[in-house]
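Input/output pair, single chain:
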Amino acid sequence: MKVAIFKGKIIIRRTILECLNLKSIKNFIDGVDLESSIISSVKELDDDVLEIVNYYNAIILTESIKTPIINKYKTLETLGNDRLAAIVGAIFLFPDQDVLVFDSGTCLTIDFINSKQQYLGGRISPGIDMRFKSLYNFTDKLPLLNQQKKVKYIGDDTESSIISGVQQGILSEVKDVISGYKSCNSNTMIVFTGGDSIFFEKELKNSIFAEPNLVLIGLNEILDYNE
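Output:
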């Protein structure tokens, strides 16, 4: 669980907690005068998290919370909170621009918001690890492999073929999506976040902007917008 403390627009403290409960949050906040807070979860909130919410009177991010975007998504109740926060973070970093946001974690989500701050939707597909696991789980003989730093373009055995298929495959998918959006507006900003963003940053080099704290930035903006 990622947690952060902002002073205005600046992160002054950030960490990842293995155990999220009131004690761990109090230890993290220790010494800081907390004025307001917001929590985002893609899972149902358990008793430990609800205790934190009640203690700090925190805002819970849901589809009913006001955000500084025009949301054109047809099923707001199914839009993941992390996707929503990342989109808001993107328009804070790049106001008045078309922005394409890639969040590369368990799933690869791709979201587009235009220069009018209209969120139009995007894509959801399996992330890198999920692709490796699906090949293992849904076949009888293919091995379970992990992401590799060096990837052959053409695999010359089963293992290198899987690695190439997964990593070069998802890279080709991303390049094709970027090309499609850039063909409509060459000035579209390409922003990456999520656990696998390092992989794409290395492969795509200077053509993207990587921001590991994008969701946290977006949550801070939503919190400010609701005060």
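The CA atoms of residues 175 and 214 lie 21 Å apart. The chain has a mean pLDDT of 95.
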